[in-house]
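Hello, quick one for you while I still have it in my head. My current little project is about how a certain protein chain folds up. You're getting the sequence in one-letter code plus the fold written as tokens. Would you mind checking whether the tokens look sensible for this chain? Here's the protein in full, and shout if anything looks odd to you:
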Amino acid sequence: MKKLELTGFQLKLIALAGMIVDHVNTHFGHHLGFPIWVSWVGRFVAPVFLYLLMEGFTHTSNRSNYFKRLYTGAFVMFVINLVKNIVTGQYYNPLTKEFDAFLLLNGNNIFLTLTCFYIIFSLVERIQTKDGNKWKHISFLIPMILLTCLTEGGLYLLPFGLVLAWFHGSKRITVWALAVTSLLFAVKAIMNYYSLGYAYTDLYHYLGFDNQFMQWLAIPLIMRYNGQRGGSGERWEKDLFYMIYPAHLVVIYILEFFIQ
């Protein structure tokens, strides 16, 4: 039997499906009666998108346009989240009942995360070229890393993203990086449970919350990636992620507003 292979476009479609399931579960899983393990399903999504980001960074013919799409998407989501938080009043601290600027800007924005990693990829590449400005690039890289930690999923993705940046998305090293970080996240989750979580719930339910270790689900998908972009090359395929991501979140935000 021919070994299953996945193109970049097919990987993107799988990640989009996982992303939608994950967001529906996050916002409506309790209402729909979803089991705890559904929260594990979406943990592969961000690593796959980050891996595809490195592929795009490496092979795109126009990095300027690629970067422009990313930060435009980040700005669009910034505005959507801002409007949503204003309309729903989710900018007051639930404990102090005072205005909280962080909550005002809070919301899903994977575009911002990917934009930050794109900049990290670029800086690491310049550091490795030894163009005489090594320390200048390092001085930009350090605050960029700190900023990335504040973005959606940025802290958990950072070790994997730095490995991608340094080894230029090598599939073998990528798989090992995901395996090792997943194991470390699993150890962290179990230690957290026995130091605190066991007092409130059982291990199964706790791991439904502290679930980043399930990013290992990205490993078999990346292993099956054949290095080809795939699809028909039409413009809508390139823009699919940039359209579906904000569109499905707007629908979720509207439904959540009326349900609550």
